Amino acid sequence: MISGFATSEGTKKFAQNSGVNLDNFREFTNLHLSNVGIGTYLGDADAKTDELVTNAVKQSILSGINVVDTAINYRSQKAERSVGKAISELIQDGKITRDQIFLSTKNGYVTNDADVNLGFWEYVKEEYSQKGIIKEGDVTSGYHCMTPTFLSDQLDRSLKNLGLECVDLMYLHNAVEGQIKDVSKEKFLENLKSVFELYEQKRDEGKIKFYGMATWECFRVSSDNPQYLSLEETVSMAKKIGGENHGFRFIQLPFNMHYDQALLGKTQLFENQNISVLETSVKLGIGVFTSVPFMQGRLLQPGTLPEFGELKPSLRALQFIRSSPGILAPLIGQKSPEHVSENLEIMKIPSLSEGEFLTLVKKLTS
Fold first, then answer.
1. CA nearest 88: which of 58, 66, 114?
2. Tell me, what CATH number does 126's domain have?
3. Residue 57 near residue 83, CB atoms below 8 Å
4. Is residue 188 a part of any domain in this protein?
5. pLDDT per position as a tens digit, 56-106
6. Which of helix, strand or coil describes residue 105?
7. Are 349 and 21 in contact (CB under 8 A)?
8. Residue 46 lies inside a defined structural domain of this protein
């Protein structure tokens, strides 16, 4: 197991040695983070995809990316193992040190293990039910579980898959979305409090540095929607549990030129004002990573994205997202060497200035 975690000194050294435009690193929680990250969601749970993901993570890191995102349920635990292998090999080869890489994973969804020859329910029964990790009523209709016993077990499995003693960021994965059909909002918030207490405990144990929520709907919908969650109240909950030095510092949500609610939708109530979730995040000191930058390739079809800056579609999509105020980095799912090379051309140029971005948004929304 590799010890350590991302540090201010390590990430700064990574940025300085990256060979990319230094403006493409943001300082947040004293860490220097690349304003583009790699995601590892899609792909078959097979050895060929393992190799592609491992190589893509290595190529991304060697091209100046130090933000890597995965989840225990991605490819039934194989995504985490591919990421772990990539990081381990780069460290062994002396290309990086652990303190230079910011690594996030997620737990909450019940998953099997593609490397164990058992069907989904057989695995759940053998690994979780019979061992008392999951009991009747713990799992929702959305295959989601957020009991401290289950999440604690999942964290240990994630660390083992990744080969790490500590993960930089643990997200609770699609919690509102996975739970709200089956539990009341009041019960959900009670359960969320228990999760934050667990995560604070795991910080004390040195297994995680920060925690957050990886979401789909809850921060982008209006307050009358059953899936709505107040970011201000969520941060307030974390403060009550962990004090001013609490670990709830990040959220993840979908954002691109099509899913623009995070920027343009005034969905969050903050100090009695309706403002966007990105604006709310800035005011609360929460870092935002974004998913689906290309909507799984659909945004890259000819004529889909408006043209600006003489950039090819993939770079236009990334430039728009990473230039949006309040966003740390879009997370790109990329596997082939060609796609990695093409996407990471963006690291050669700086993101748009605030003025340039506002001009672009006016042009796009007029």
1. 58
2. 3.20.20.100
3. yes
4. yes
5. 999 999 999 999 999 999 999 999 999 999 999 999 999 999 999 999 999
6. strand
7. yes
8. yes
